[in-house]
C-alpha cells in the first residue's frame, strides 16, 4: 500500500507542523495478505487537508475511511486529526454505521462549526465479503465503477472504492487490479480532482482448508493467545503435537523479540502470521513493519565460551534455528518477512496411542 500527502519541502514552521500531522495521519502500512489487497492515496493540494485510514476492529472487521477537509495548513491538519480520532472512537462503540456517522458529525461540528468535511466510511468482513458503509458530503462508495448502497457483499476479484472530495470516479475504477492495487489506485487518482483521498480493496478467492492467517497487535500480552490459536490449528490439520509445540516455541521467541525491539515510534502496529500446511511440511511466515532487521545475519553464539565471557543476545534466533529446518528473510515493501519451514514424518512423529 502506498501513500502520499506531504509536500517535499515545507518552508515555514506552520507548514512543517502541518506536514508532520499529515504524516502521522497515514495508517500503518497494510501487509501483504493472501485474502485481500489494499491501497490508499491522497492527491496533494495546497487548499485542503485529506487523509485515508485503515484499521482492524474486534471480531476481524476491517474499517476503511477516506476524508477530505477544505482547510489547509495547521488549521486543516488539526481538523483532520480530530476527525480521524472521532471516526476510530465512534467505530469502537460498535453502533450501526448511520449512528456512528451522526455521533462523529455532531462532535466535530461542536468544535469546528466553520468547516465541513467529506467522509466515506465502511466496515468489511474479509471472510464473507459483507460490508456496511455510509458517508457525508462529497464522497463515493463503489464496486468497480458502480456506486453501492450502505450494505452489500464484495465479490472476490472485484474492487471496492472509497473516495472523499468528489462524487465522480474515473474509468480506472471499472478495471480489475491485474498489476496490483497500487498501480490501479495510482492511475485512478490521476483522473480525479486535486485534494481527494481514496482507498481501494479487493478480495482474493481462497481454496482448501489451508493456508491460515493470524494477526495481533504489538502487545506482549497478545502473544500467548496467537500462539495457542496456531497450535490448535496445527492440531486440527493433523500435524503431530511435537511439531506444533516446536513451532509454537519458535514463534513465541520471534514475536517477543519483534514486540520488544522492533518498533521505535511507540504506536500500535499489526503483526501478521501466515500458516501453510502440506503433507509432511509446515510453512510459517511472520510479517511486521518495524525497523528493518534480518535476524539471520546475527552470528551464532559461542556456546563453548565461559558464561561471563559470552556476548549478550544471539541465543534467540539460534534457539529458533534448532527448532525448524529452514529459515529465510526478506524486506518486502516496508515489511520484515521471516519464513520458517518444519518438516515431519506424519506417522513417525505421532504420539503412540495408549493401550
From TrEMBL:
This is Anti-sigma regulatory factor (Ser/Thr protein kinase). The keyword Calcium does not apply. One of its GO terms (molecular function) is protein serine/threonine kinase activity. PANTHER family: ANTI-SIGMA-F FACTOR RSBW-RELATED, SLR1861 PROTEIN. Keywords: Kinase, Serine/threonine-protein kinase, Transferase. Residues 218-342 form the Histidine kinase/HSP90-like ATPase domain. It comes from Aureimonas pseudogalii.
Amino acid at each position: 500500500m502506498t501513500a502520499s500527502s506531504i509536500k517535499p519541502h515545507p518552508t515555514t514552521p506552520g507548514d512543517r507542523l502541518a506536514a508532520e500531522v499529515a504524516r502521522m495521519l497515514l495508517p500503518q502500512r497494510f501487509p501483504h495478505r493472501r485474502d485481500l489487497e489494499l491501497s490508499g492515496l491522497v492527491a496533494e493540494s495546497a487548499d485542503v487537508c485529506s487523509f485515508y485510514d485503515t484499521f482492524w476492529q474486534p471480531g476481524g472487521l476491517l474499517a476503511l475511511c477516506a476524508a477530505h477537509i477544505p482547510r489547509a495548513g495547521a488549521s486543516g491538519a488539526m481538523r483532520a486529526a480530530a476527525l480521524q480520532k472521532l471516526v476510530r472512537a465512534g467505530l469502537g462503540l460498535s453502533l450501526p454505521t448511520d449512528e456512528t456517522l451522526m455521533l462523529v458529525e455532531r462532535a466535530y461540528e461542536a468544535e469546528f462549526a466553520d468547516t465541513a468535511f467529506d467522509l466515506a466510511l465502511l466496515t468489511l468482513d474479509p471472510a464473507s465479503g459483507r460490508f456496511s458503509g455510509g458517508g457525508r458530503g462529497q464522497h463515493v462508495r463503489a464496486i468497480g465503477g458502480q456506486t453501492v448502497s450502505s450494505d452489500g457483499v464484495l465479490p472476490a476479484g472485484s474492487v471496492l472504492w472509497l473516495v472523499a472530495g468528489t462524487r465522480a470516479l474515473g474509468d480506472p475504477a471499472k478495471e480489475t487490479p491485474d498489476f496490483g492495487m497500487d498501480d490501479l489506485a495510482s492511475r485512478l487518482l490521476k483522473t480525479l480532482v486535486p485534494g481527494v483521498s481514496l482507498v481501494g480493496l479487493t478480495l482474493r478467492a481462497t481454496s482448501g482448508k489451508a493456508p491460515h492467517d493470524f494477526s495481533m497487535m504489538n502487545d506482549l500480552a497478545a502473544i500467548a493467545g496467537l500462539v495457542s490459536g496456531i497450535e490448535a490449528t496445527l492440531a486440527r490439520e493433523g500435524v503431530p503435537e511435537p511439531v506444533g509445540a516446536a513451532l509454537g516455541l519458535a514463534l513465541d521467541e520471534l514475536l517477543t523479540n519483534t514486540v520488544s525491539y522492533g518498533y521505535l515510534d511507540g504506536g500500535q502496529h499489526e503483526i501478521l502470521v501466515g500458516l501453510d500446511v502440506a503433507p509432511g511440511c509446515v510453512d510459517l511466515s511472520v510479517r511486521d513493519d518495524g525497523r528493518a532487521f534480518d535476524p539471520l545475519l546475527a552470528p551464532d553464539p559461542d556456546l563453548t565460551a565461559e558464561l561471563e565471557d559470552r556476548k549478550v543476545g544471539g541465543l534467540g534466533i539460534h534457539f529458533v534455528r534448532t527448532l525448524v529446518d529452514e529459515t529465510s528473510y526478506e524486506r518486502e515493501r516496508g515489511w520484515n518477512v521471516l519464513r520458517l519451514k518444519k518438516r515431519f514424518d506424519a506417522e513417525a512423529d505421532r504420539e503412540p496411542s495408549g493401550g
